[in-house]
Amino acid sequence: MKRIAIDMDEVIADALAEYLQRYNTDFNAKLTKQDVIGKRIAELAPAEHLTRLRSYFHEESFFRDLEVMEGSQEVIRDLMDRYEVYIVTAAMEVPCSFTAKFQWLERHFPFLPPDNIVFCGNKGIIAADYLIDDNVYQLDRFRGEGILFTTPHNFYESKYNRVDDWQDVRKLFLDSPE
Amino acid sequence: MKRIAIDMDEVIADALAEYLQRYNTDFNAKLTKQDVIGKRIAELAPAEHLTRLRSYFHEESFFRDLEVMEGSQEVIRDLMDRYEVYIVTAAMEVPCSFTAKFQWLERHFPFLPPDNIVFCGNKGIIAADYLIDDNVYQLDRFRGEGILFTTPHNFYESKYNRVDDWQDVRKLFLDSPE
């Protein structure tokens, strides 16, 4: 059975929506996902907003109530019939997120055994056939086949095979004979 | 550069000493490491102690103040000159341990980058050349070369190459030409 490792933020959990919402609320702004195509929010925000902007990611509450990316639950459940599925998230960058991330997975992906959850830093340590991730720098370190999950900041990347949403993941891994 | 993955409990952190100390305090007992050679404490304790005994591992405080295994800091620092070193612990079994384990590593192994820390369940997901672990079932799932770190419960195992302490690890990985 082949093994697929799947990232959390911006792949199964909509961290960008939360980020934009916090920014818009704090600074009375109206940034949308369209506005950040090919960019990081930090490039669009005035310098005096950056400290606050960077702090969002270091608040435990940030990770508690993220929206689930559309279709990810159904597709992952189906993937589990044909692949070993692991959720692999770079939680070591944000130690305050450990418990919130684990509980979020328990709540939204209760069918996924805790044995198949990995909190790491460098994803080069992951032994899997595929890694679905929105970060090119993690795909670069991974030893298997990297698949880029489209999110605004990676919109113009052309280095990896790309999936735009969970229906694309289904097509790639399930809509073909074994 | 070859990569070594190293377990935490009973390899760099003396979880067994803490376990025995809690048991002895709670039940006015005098169990030592000698007493549990080839056994689990649960096999020696009366049935009415088991619920309490099993609860130790699910208390965050358990992981806060574990003693560092003798020589592990010096040898790991030296290993880092010649190998990529990752600490890989099965923390998903005990979600309450996440923060305590991370802070313990920050305190006792400050020279180890957070990028090289992994909290997982099944260690079959780890891409490394070697795994030093006291658990045969984790070594069985690992794809690289497993090295059994001696601790009382695995005393009679003969399936893996074995190291008895950190000086043995030094001999195996450092006392030979590159």
Condensed summary:
Two copies of one chain form a homodimer. By secondary structure, chain A is an alpha/beta fold. Chain A has helices spanning 15-27, 41-44, 50-55, 60-64, 72-82, 98-108, 136-141, 166-173; strands at 3-6, 84-89, 117-119, 130-133, 145-149, 161-163.
Structure commentary:
The structure is a homodimer of 178-residue chains. Chain A contains 8 helices and 6 strands, in the order E-H-H-H-H-H-E-H-E-E-H-E-E-H. Chain A has helices at 15-27, 41-44, 50-55, 60-64, 72-82, 98-108, 136-141, 166-173; strands at residues 3-6, 84-89, 117-119, 130-133, 145-149, 161-163. A 6-stranded parallel beta sheet of chain A has the order 3-2-1-4-5-6. In chain A, helix 5 (72-82) runs parallel beside helix 8. The longest helix of chain A is centred in the first third of the chain and has 13 residues, at 15-27. Chain A is globular. The A-B interface holds A 3, 5, 86, 88, 91-93, 95, 98-99, 102, 113-122, 124-128, 143 and B 3, 5, 86, 88, 91-93, 95, 98-99, 102, 113-122, 124-128, 143.
Please write out the topology.
The structure is a homodimer of 178-residue chains.
Chain A: E1 3-6, H1 15-27, H2 41-44, H3 50-55, H4 60-64, H5 72-82, E2 84-89, H6 98-108, E3 117-119, E4 130-133, H7 136-141, E5 145-149, E6 161-163, H8 166-173
Parallel strand pairs in A: 1-2, 1-4, 2-3, 4-5, 5-6
Helix pairs in contact in A: 5-8
